[in-house]
Design goal:
Protein name: ABC transporter ATP-binding protein
Strand content: 25-35%
Family: Belongs to the ABC transporter superfamily.
Order of helices and strands: EEEHEEEHEHHHEHEHEEHEEEEH
Distance between the termini: 38 Å
Keywords: ATP-binding, Nucleotide-binding, Transport
Structural class: alpha/beta
Number of helices: 9
CATH architecture of the largest domain: 3-Layer(aba) Sandwich
GO molecular function: ATP binding
Number of domains: 2
CATH class of the largest domain: Alpha Beta
Pfam families: ABC_tran
Number of strands: 15
Oligomer: single chain
CATH topology of the largest domain: Rossmann fold
Helix content: 25-40%
Strand order of the largest sheet: 7-8-9-3-10-11
Bound molecules: adenosine-5'-triphosphate
């Protein structure tokens, strides 16, 4: 994508001059709420036109070849309207029909294959309203997979999932990423830390980083500190938006913070992690 931009009305700029490229595998799009991730994904999924710039899938271009693009694309939006009264199997059958699979026998085979792929074959005949959050997300992935897309766009898929479901879902995406391009957006660093090699970080409509995780970690080398602060000293801290974590102790706080120089007298350098780099780029730390 080249020089992509999006304005809502005349005032709100949701995307500013975004340039991004990706190949096969899992690609993470990380950013705080309101960064513009959903806007970017909706444009990529041909759901909404950009105000400027271009998006290309090989030789196809958004706005010109939308029909062709939709055939190679699977999309799981942030809020997928699921038909609660349908069973998982009925829902997938309906989506397959919408995607143009007219032959009912072929459709049935496809639906069963998808249910197995996301490990919901045992729940196929249960109504979606009885599904857990994780199961709903997996049926969401199954619907996106019908048509065997080369590219999948998955918007904040782990929101509202418990830790166990989150890991299971991450494993599923990792497996699916072996065969195709998957773009996954999240504001939770742990969602992409172990599974994505390449990532982009967005903040306030701008792309503030694009590259690999090891390259990103190098940016914060020597800038991460840990130490204890007395209760009253916390508010005197200059770079509070750099606070990565803050844990209350009997006498004050255990602090982890990103700062160019030693932020307080007892702070010692720490080995950087992705969360530190994310706070460094977006300044979305725990404002004390
Ligand atoms: N339909 C809309 N009309 C006006 N402004 C919008 C619209 N949709 C999004 N925005 C604004 O555009 C900006 C980017 O929103 P977007 O939903 O793309 O961010 P996000 O990174 O996906 O965050 P979230 O995870 O909270 O959805 C925000 O300031 C948001 O308020």
């Amino acid at each position: 994508m080249t020089s992509l931009s999006k304005r809502y009305g005349s005032e709100r700029v949701a995307l500013k001059d975004i340039n991004l490229a990706f190949g096969k595998g899992l690609f993470g799009l990380l950013g705080p709420n309101g960064a513009g991730k959903s806007t970017l994904m909706q444009i990529m999924a041909t759901v909404m036109p950009p105000t400027g710039g271009t998006v290309e899938y090989g030789s196809y271009r958004i706005g010109k070849n939308d029909h062709e693009i939709r055939r190679i694309l699977g999309y799981l939006p942030q809020r997928l309207g699921l038909y609660d009264k349908l069973t998982g199997e009925e829902f997938l059958n309906y989506i397959a029909l919408l995607k143009g699979m007219k032959d009912s026998a072929a459709r049935r085979i496809k639906v069963l294959e998808m249910l197995e792929r996301v490990n919901l074959q045992d729940k196929a005949r249960r109504k979606i309203k009885t599904y857990s959050g994780g199961m709903k997300q997996r049926i969401g992935i199954a619907q996106a997979l019908i048509g065997d897309p080369q590219v999948m766009i998955v918007d904040e898929p782990t929101a509202g999932l418990d830790p166990e479901e989150r890991i299971r879902f991450r494993d599923l995406l990792e497996e699916l990423g072996l065969e195709r391009t998957i773009l996954i957006s999240t504001h939770i660093v742990a969602d992409i830390e172990t599974s994505c090699n390449a990532l982009a970080v967005m903040n306030k409509g701008e792309m503030v980083y694009q590259g690999t995780i090891p390259q990103l970690l190098k940016k914060v080398d020597g800038k991460v500190w840990t130490g204890q602060l007395e209760e009253g000293d916390l508010h005197g801290l200059v770079n509070r938006s750099g606070i990565v974590s803050r844990r209350k102790t009997a006498t004050g706080y255990d602090i982890r913070i990103v700062a160019d120089a030693c932020p307080f007298y007892s702070a010692i350098p720490a080995v950087p992690g992705l969360e530190d780099a994310y706070i460094f780029l977006t300044g979305s730390g725990h404002h004390a």
